Amino acid sequence: MPIKFNADHDRAERVLLEVAGHRTVSISSLGEEALQEMERRYFMKPADMKPKVYYRLTDNWLELTVRYRPRFRDSGIEGSDEPRHFKGHD
Length: 90
Fold this sequence. Notes:
Number of strands: 3
Structural class: alpha+beta
Shape: elongated
Helix content: 25-40%
Strand order of the largest sheet: 1-3-2
Strand content: 15-25%
Radius of gyration: 15 Å
């Protein structure tokens, strides 16, 4: 999401995290086995599964992108267990 340099980037980040939070699988809803499998496959610790905003400076604006782990039904692929990444954060 591009925003002007002088915009309230803290507010923009809060909005992105709030929206991602509504579409993210809850860590507490995952069983111990699922958490261990995610750590093994993706080298992800539970703290890494929380939505995270990344910043990128451009010539004209500040670009904010959010990375989050979607619920399975939101991922577009039934049964998908791949984390969702956005533009520039593969």
